[in-house]
Amino acid sequence: MPDFETRNPARPAEVVGRYAGTTAEGLERALAAAARAQASWRRIAGVERALALGRFLDAVAARSGDIARAITREQGKPLAEARSETAKAIAEGRAMAAFVATDSGEVRPSARAGVRNMVLRRPRGVIGAITPWNFPILTPMRKIAPAVAFGNAIVLKPSEFAPAAAQLVVDAARGVLPDDLVQIVLGGAEVGGALVSHAGVAGVTFTGSVATGKRVYAAAAAHLAEVSLELGGKNAAVVHDAPDLGACLDQVMLAACLCAGQRCTAISRVIVRRALHDDTVAGLAERAAAAKLGDGLDPATTMGPLTTAHQLAHVRELVEAGVAAGARVVTGGRPVEVAGCEGGYFHAPTVLDRVDAGNRVAREEIFGPVISVIAYDTLDEAFSILNGVGYGLTSSLFSQDAGVIRRFVDESENGMIHVNHGTIPDNHMPFGGIKDSGVGAYSVGPSAAHFHTTEHSVYLG
Ligand code: NAD
Fold first, then answer.
1. Claim to verify: residue 212 and residue 282 sit in the same structural domain
2. pLDDT digits (tens, 9 = 90+) for 182-238
3. Host domain of residue 180
């Protein structure tokens, strides 16, 4: 991979980082060194590994100011969001350490007298990890922390658009974790493809788009590596009844516009009971119009730019297609210029109304600050719209009605189901999706064990 540079999406003329791309030989060296490091690390007791992970997280925390600034300068989000992302990454890592320190496997009943049965887990080996650009520390750490805690080595390839935070995290491991246990390789599709195709990688964990996820799945299948894929979403909030509609819309807007909507868990559809439709549209438009767009390092900024020119073009194209198919722009609806941020990739927070459930803008992942409002008359209709997309990542319902809540919990075709709040997940709960949103074990919390370890049924006679 050739050397490459990253640019500030708020002012693309500004080069932020210069990186040496990893060569084919460099990747071989990284994987061989990782395998050597793992051979020793796997013999360390889980409790000790968890303690070491804690020391590594302390080292990451000591660099959190630099990490947050690096995130804002390469990815674009406001500094306050970059700080929260860094804090959440560390908190999730600590929850993982606590789980591994107390995990004792399972004792199962035996079919034979005098025999004791157990299900035990062992480290998987060398993990190959690929991450996107929207959460430059959270996603890499969701892969590094469990890999280390469960006794693996990891070779991470972060996004070529925002690798600085991951580089700082890997630097923090130096002198705290064994040499070569946590490694980084740099570049784009070529380096990522070589990593996930390598026979020395026992598990492939990928977060990114569906199209790339399918390629990664096929490459991992060719050498029968374990896979965990976390892909896109077309998440909805169903607003059925909300005694405090204002509080509900605050949550929806936050879930829609954090990270300028570039979250796989962003709410991009609001499916609203017709009686609440007008107030919902007005309330969302008011909140969207209050956003202050700008450079994420400016403390007044509440929403940064999109991260790449390609992403801005994608959002613009999908909004235009939605409007051409009958959606009405209530507010926003186009890219905007921001004073002092020449050429920045800004898109106005946008509310689209009268969106038909079959409209592309209501079906395809947009990954931008755009909400499509769809009204419904019956609950059956609401559920049909909710589940009528290819994705199945996260969802939220606002209702006080026990019957409606029960139905949502049973029927929402999503990996994550929230009632009466937005879509921000806890630090210790399984994170992942069904349908086109993911394959394999969820990350975060105990379910990470299913990807990061192999399972062994033991019969002690
Ligand atoms: P992307 O799929 O374009 O790239 C993701 C990563 O894959 C990058 O590091 C890229 O260099 C690498 N890559 C590209 N081609 C590859 C190949 N052939 N083999 C191996 N690696 C390859 O995604 P993106 O544009 O960086 O991120 C946006 C997407 O990520 C959105 O679709 C979003 O929904 C998804 N996402 C999902 C989650 C989740 O947890 N479900 C979280 C964040 C982002």
1. no
2. 999 999 999 999 999 999 999 999 999 999 999 999 999 999 999 999 999 999 999
3. 4-231+437-460
Q: Give yes or no for a contact between 348 and 302, defined as CB atoms under 8 angstroms apart.
A: no
> Does the CB atom of residue 134 touch ligand 1 within 6 A?
yes
Give the integer Cα–Cα distance in Å for 284 and 252. Answer: 8
Which atom from ligand 1 is nearest to the alpha carbon of 233? Answer: 34
DSSP secondary structure of 8-55: ETTEEEEEEEEEPPPPHHHHHHHHHHHHHHHHHHTTS-HHHHHHHHHH
Res. 445 pLDDT band, cuts 50 70 90: confident
* Residue 212 alpha carbon to ligand 1 centre in Å: 6
Residue 422's identity, in one-letter code, is G
The secondary structure of residue 303, as a DSSP letter, is: B
- Is the shortest distance between the CB of 207 and ligand 1 below 6 Å? yes
Give the global pTM.
Answer: 0.97
231 lines ligand 1 (CB under 6 A): yes
Tell how far the Cα of 210 is from the centroid of ligand 1, in angstroms: 8
CATH code of residue 159: 3.40.605.10
Select from 209, 315, 451 the residue to mutate for testing ligand 1; criterion: most ligand atoms less than 8 Å from CB.
Answer: 209
Predicted local distance difference test score (pLDDT) of residue 17: 97
User: Exposure of 98 by Cβ count < 10 A (0-12 exposed, 13-18 middle, 19+ buried)?
Assistant: middle
Q: Tell which atom from ligand 1 comes closest to the C-alpha of 437.
A: 41
Strands of 106-108's sheet, edge to edge? Answer: 106-108, 116-123, 453-460
- Residues above pLDDT 90, as percent of the chain: 97
Please check whether residues 94 and 222 belong to one and the same domain. yes
Give the residue, by CA position, lying nearest to ligand 1 atom 43. Answer: 264
Nearest CA to ligand 1 atom 23: 208
421 and 452 fall within a common domain: no
Q: Number of structural domains, the chain?
A: 2
Do 227 and 239 lie in one domain? The reply is no
Do 196 and 325 lie in a common domain? no
Distance in Å, CA 90 to ligand 1 centroid: 22
Give the pLDDT confidence of 399-434 residue by residue, as tens digits. 999 999 999 999 999 999 999 988 889 999 999 999
Ligand 1 in reach of 132 Cβ (< 6 A)? yes
Please tell me whether residues 372 and 391 are part of one structural domain: yes
Question: Is 317 assigned a catalytic role?
Answer: no
Active site residue 259: no
* Helix (H/G/I), strand (E/B), else coil: 110: coil
pLDDT (tens digit per residue) in 287-317: 999 999 999 999 999 999 999 999 999 999 9
CA 178 – CA 88 distance, rounded (Å): 24
Ligand 1 within 6 A of 117 CB? Answer: no
283 lines ligand 1 (CB under 6 A): no
Predicted pLDDT at 154: 99
